[in-house]
Amino acid sequence: MLKIGIECESIEGPESWGIGRIVKKLLEEISRRPELANEFRFFLYFKSRIPDYPWLNSPIFVKKAVFNHSQILENLRMNSFSLYYYIFLPIKLWFEKLDLMFFPNYMLPIFFKGRSLVILTEDIYYEINSGTLPWQYKLAYKIFAGWWAARHATKIMAISETSKKEVSRLFNIDSARIVANQLGVDHPKPVTPEPSPSASYGASSYTSYILYIGQAFPRRHLRETMLAFELIAGQFPDLKLIAVGKDKYNPLLLENLKNGINRRIGREGIIYKEYVPENELHQLYAGAKLLIYVSSKEAFGLPPLEALGYGVPAVVSDSEINHEIFGDNAFFVCPEDVRLSSVEALVEGLKTITPDSITTAIAEGLTDDIKREQIKKSAERILEKYTWQGFTDRFLNLVSGH
Question: Is it the case that residue 197 has pLDDT exceeding 50?
Answer without folding.
Answer: no
